From TrEMBL:
UniProt entry tagged with the keyword Metal-binding: yes
Family that this chain belongs to: Belongs to the cysteine dioxygenase family.
Binding site for Fe cation: 95, 97, 149
Name by which UniProt lists this protein: Putative metal-dependent enzyme (Double-stranded beta helix superfamily)
Keywords in alphabetical order: Dioxygenase, Iron, Metal-binding, Oxidoreductase, Thioether bond
Length: 186
């Protein structure tokens, strides 16, 4: 995933338009970040797996790396909606985020490995704290800090997930705050 280039916007289906309207109401309540993330996850839930949510182009992967389709960036910068398409085995870096985040698996299966940062003399290392397998139809929401993780497509087919971030991805290009290249355990 790039960290600086702005992303092109794409067309949306009517169902995705409805989802954006629901997210606007949820985010507009102005609750703390962790609660907003959970509300956004609840918005995603009824749309996961629906065949009319994404266009064919938005379900298309890229052999080079997992692919990001920006479905919406709210003009006031309060949230963005992204569809990520992963071919089998594709994964992110170990990273954390600029903002709260809600995710839902639309198709396939993803596995998240979570880490915590442990001081190690003058530097630090990452210790894995657990793996979470997310099949299609599952959601989660979280807010920094303590959100270091790595996500991969752990299934045998294409995986597609929806991500809502409390940031303007049309401007930022990515939700990633930092990519970690420290030694890892686990
Ligand atoms: Fe992430």
């Amino acid at each position: 995933m790039t960290t600086s280039a702005a992303l092109p916007r794409v067309d949306r289906t009517e169902r995705a338009d409805a989802l954006v309207a629901e997210l606007r109401l949820a985010v507009g309540r102005g609750l703390p970040p962790d609660l907003t993330a959970h509300l956004a996850a609840e918005c995603l839930l009824p749309h996961l797996g629906a065949p009319d949510l994404l266009t064919g182009a938005q379900l298309t992967g890229d052999a080079a790396q997992y692919r990001q389709h920006l479905l919406h960036a709210e003009p006031d910068g309060s949230f963005s909606l992204v569809a990520l398409v992963w071919l089998p085995g594709q994964h992110t870096s170990v990273h954390d985020h600029l903002s709260w985040c809600a995710t839902g698996v639309h198709l396939g299966e993803e596995t998240e490995r979570r880490y915590r940062l442990v001081p190690d003399g003058p530097t630090a290392r990452l210790v894995a704290t657990g793996d979470v397998v997310n099949p299609s139809g599952t959601v989660c929401g979280f807010a920094p800090p303590g959100d270091i993780h790595r996500v991969r497509n752990s299934g045998t087919g294409t995986a597609v997930s929806l991500h809502v971030y409390g940031a303007d991805l049309a401007r930022l290009g990515s939700s990633i705050r930092r990519v970690y290249q420290l030694p890892t355990e686990g």
